[in-house]
Design goal:
two-stranded antiparallel sheet, Butyryl-CoA Dehydrogenase, subunit A, domain 3, 591 residues, 12% strand, Butyryl-Coa Dehydrogenase, subunit A, domain 1, homodimer, Butyryl-CoA Dehydrogenase, subunit A, domain 2, alpha+beta, 4 domains, seven-stranded mixed sheet
Chain lengths: 591, 591
């Protein structure tokens, strides 16, 4: 069984010593002092360990069941969901006007990380609701907000997002779901949507579906798409639940992982829906939520990796096998714990240096979103827009890799379902796929984000890295960080230059390197994070911090990342610079 | 459902145009002309597609069941097993003296690749039997051979290998299973063995367990270990089956994949066994089979990847989504097939260039084993001993990565169990773990094989690479291959030099880089294979080969590997040269 303990200490370090949130000048951050965030994180950590983690295996083994059109969630999920609601965890960063607690999105992310580590499938029920809440909050009429948001803030009603259809996922322009306008201003929605996470279940009184569909007169492709609110039960004028809407669960998907979450085929048979936002502007409404949704998936990537890493460390300290090559470390035992072996350490260091770097990166991203939303900071908005595909694509790829590496520490035991490692790997796999498969993230990054606003944001990022390095000039201790970061950043710039010089003549030359660019940029971002974390750790040590082991460990872990992960940057650049020819050389029938 | 078609064409290319087996001068290869191997491969391909592949999903979904102490295999496995026996596929490279067909091991590997691609879990029943057959063939008395081998050649009786115990896998010195000598020359075996693949099932009349155990007087650690033949049913003097031995299945493991194969906990309760080979020399007996067994697992790595790649290609040609960035490729359709997109092609090229390189590498390894066994070629034996951990470790790591990449091509559909991709990924995962986890392979490579016989074999390999490059001097077409191979080989040599200069002072300095060295060497080996394949393809084209698309595709795929995969070598070298410090910096409690 999973034995997850939230790493609140590291979170506090990132919030207060790296991001220094209470000095950040973002509205709503004033109260975020160390004691306050510690209290919140500790309480959330307790829920994670005691309520959510014990249900993770149950969710995986039992899965969801569709019986007579109704989805039943695994045993214990209902009680845990009630506990989450009661603790106010569903409302943390929601608008106080609708019953939320109005805390920063950043803090919600920190708490969310724990919940995902403890039980990714379970946390999706409220995660999807939060996404739908945000959409209605941003685009709904006052009446719509008043009708739906208070119930969604508490998760009495949960939410979903309906984009994908059997024949179209990435290419939503081919969408077939139709919206027929009615005289009363409503629409009748007809079509089939697939891969609807939390599409139906027994945890809430109502499910508020947000459905993309084509209303007449919108034209071809994505231009004709609008977004609709389609509740499972219609809502009466007094807010009580009315009749059942004409929608049903066609099928529950059998999946590789996240068995505890109900992935539904949803059939809309003339279901009553109401336009959310502007007619024919549904894609735009979706896109405004995308930064948050994609950051949330990137967070899943490293949060599951954190859980897997914790298991691997515990196992490596407990399992005895062989002797340290430099002499017995535990001579009183028949063998040494396997953590003495360099190759086991390599795996653990890979895992640790990734997870901690990813946490800092994601928290920074959430902080940028707060800046953009709460402080109307256009630079922050531009930067997070650029970073979003990197957070989603890089962190989920590496998160999966990390879970696989953690599983490897267990040898044969990791392959059995008696240990939690198979589940972590199977769960982590989906994050590379949904919310835009990682190849699409790379396309978004190279095809759109690099050139956005005349390339302003990527230039700002390069300047930021340069300034960071310059600020440590003369600090010899920081040289292993700044030297590596400078080199990696130069490689990233060279890659960008290659795209500029070749992408216009042949777009395939840029797109053939897009995936490598996303990874190269991910490494630069984590290198930047490790540089900042190392500086914060040195500062703490200089100031006589009592917990020397923590800060020294932080610096050593950062050195590992710079020395052993950043060399991947040159490889990515070399691949990028081969251009389109190797990738596009074959005719279709030569495959 | 899986729709696997064996790539006999590529196999023929490797056998006859790269390895040129009929001119190789290895005893037993004389008959191996194009027509002969084509007939065998075509027949095996038919069995793979028609008998084995249709059962792959059945095996995954149904799994094995333990009922009243008896293991039941999935529906249809018994009939398929009977067909395999009847076709003589279990006896291909076995000794004619015991009913085998005496064909080269190389040909058996080619056929085995197809069987694994079609149904990995199923093929393990005969694969394990082949391993046990080889052990008895190499170490058994004439009587033991006469008793067991004829039945094992036909798979009327199947075999197993029992090494691991709950508390020891890698470190077999801690073994607790005991062998008590009896007056009649037999032993009573008592202990628990775990992870016993094909440990029990309903496909054969008898199961011949080979069990490692400690007999008195052998001393501490692995020195005291002997190997025993422990049949499920004792065999009477006339060869008929006698009483049931005192052994039982304690449990069937629930695993991440290979559900169709029964992974058993085996309890030996004073089971009757007979010494195989010399007393207290059980480890040596195991090691003599290890090259074959590990090559067999490396083969699983890329064979599953081949199956996954085939699915990905078919899906990428069929699924339409979006438009080619250079203009519609299928204007008559609502969207282009996704194979037009550079990032989809990148994935397919990664897959194709790996699988074909791995096939050539594995066939070459099998060819070296034939040379070593049939032609008493000591150089070949030294070389395959060096290559074995690379074949096992590199090909299974990359094979898994390839299966994951193929799954990614499917987007969300690849995550559902409606498509075969989840199974391929879950199945492929085990190959990185069993038969010595890949970290152990890296340890074997760097800690033992590099220095074996005074470093003679690795020097011979470097010379071989050098000679290969030199042989193409003046051939401009070969420059993209030889330039890249030379550079990679230099990086490999630099890594070896680093180990020599630092490993003596600090063994951790070498072991911290062992995993990267294994991958670096893997890339050099595949680079060498691609150089040879490119040369063979150019030669065929020069000779006016009619199938130009095949040979040109081969060259383009090789160029992709050299241009886009070999840049990993510099990364591995950079990591290796950081030595032990980054890896070993943390105290245990800093994790």
């Amino acid at each position: 069984m999973s034995s997850f303990i939230a790493n609140t200490k590291d979170m506090q370090f990132v919030l207060h010593e790296v991001l220094k949130i209470s000095e950040a000048g973002v509205p709503g951050y004033e109260e975020m002092d160390r004691d306050f965030t510690e209290a919140v994180l500790d309480a959330a950590g307790k829920v994670s360990s005691e309520v959510l983690a014990p249900l993770n295996e149950v969710g995986d083994k039992e899965g969801c069941v569709l019986e007579n059109g109704v989805v039943r969630t695994p045993k214990g999920f209902d009680a845990a969901f009630a506990a989450m609601k009661e603790g106010g965890w569903t409302a943390l960063d929601c608008d106080p006007e609708y019953g939320g607690q109005g805390m920063p999105y950043l803090l919600n992310c920190a708490v969310g990380e724990m919940f995902v580590s403890a039980n990714m499938a379970f946390n999706m029920y409220q995660g999807l609701t939060h996404g739908a809440y945000s959409a209605i909050h941003a685009h709904g009429t006052d009446e719509q907000k008043a009708t739906y948001l208070p119930k969604m803030v508490t998760c009495d009603w949960t939410g979903t997002m309906n984009l994908t259809e059997p024949h179209c996922g990435t290419d939503l322009g081919m969408m077939r779901t139709k919206a027929d306008p009615q005289d009363d201003g409503s629409y009748l929605i007809t079509g089939t949507k697939i891969f609807i996470s939390a599409g139906d279940h027994d945890l809430s009184e109502n499910v508020i579906h947000l459905v993309l569909a084509k209303a007449p007169g919108g034209g071809e492709g994505t231009k004709g798409i609008s977004l609709f609110i389609v509740p499972k039960f219609l809502v009466n004028a007094d807010g009580s639940l009315g009749e059942r809407n004409s929608l049903s669960v066609g099928k529950l998907e059998e999946k590789m992982g996240i068995h505890g979450n109900a992935t539904c085929v949803m059939n809309y048979d003339g279901a009553k829906g109401w336009l959310l936002g502007d007619l024919h502007k549904g894609m735009r409404a979706m896109f405004t939520m995308m930064n948050e949704a994609r950051l949330g998936v990137g967070l899943q990537g490293y949060a599951v990796a954190e859980a897997a890493y914790q298991e691997a460390v515990a196992y490596a300290k407990d399992r005895t096998q062989g002797r340290a090559v430099t002499g017995a470390a535990a001579p009183e035992k028949a063998a040494d714990p396997i953590i003495v072996h360099p190759d086991v350490r390599r795996m653990l260091m890979d895992q640790k240096s990734f997870v901690e770097g990813a946490r800092a990166f994601t928290f920074w991203g959430a902080h940028l979103i707060d800046r953009s939303h709460k402080a109307d900071d256009a630079e922050a908005e531009g930067l997070i827009s650029l970073m979003t595909p990197v957070i989603k694509g890089f962190l989920t790829d590496k998160g999966f890799e990390t879970a696989v590496s953690a599983q490897q520490v267990f040898g044969g035991h990791g392959y059995t379902e008696d240990w939690p490692m198979s589940q972590h790997v199977r769960d982590a796999r989906i994050a590379m796929i949904y919310e835009g498969a990682n190849g699409i993230q790379a396309l978004d990054l190279v095809g759109r984000k690099l050139a956005q606003d005349g390339g302003k944001h990527v230039m700002a990022f390069f300047e930021m890295v340069k300034a960071e390095c310059k600020s440590h000039d003369g600090d010899e201790r920081m040289k292993p960080f700044t030297d590596a970061l400078k080199a990696a950043s130069k490689q990233l710039q060279a890659a960008g230059m290659f795209f500029m010089q070749n992408g216009m003549k042949n777009p395939n030359a840029a797109l053939s390197g897009s995936y490598d660019f996303m990874h190269l940029m991910g490494h630069v971002c984590l290198g930047l994070m490790w540089t900042r974390m190392a500086k914060a750790a040195f500062t703490a040590l200089d100031n006589g911090a009592s917990d020397k082991a923590f800060y020294e460990g932080k610096i050593a872990t950062g050195r590992y990342y710079m020395a052993r992960q950043l060399p991947a940057c040159a490889m990515h650049l070399a691949r990028i610079e081969t251009g389109a020819d190797p990738v596009m050389a074959l005719a279709d029938d030569q495959f």
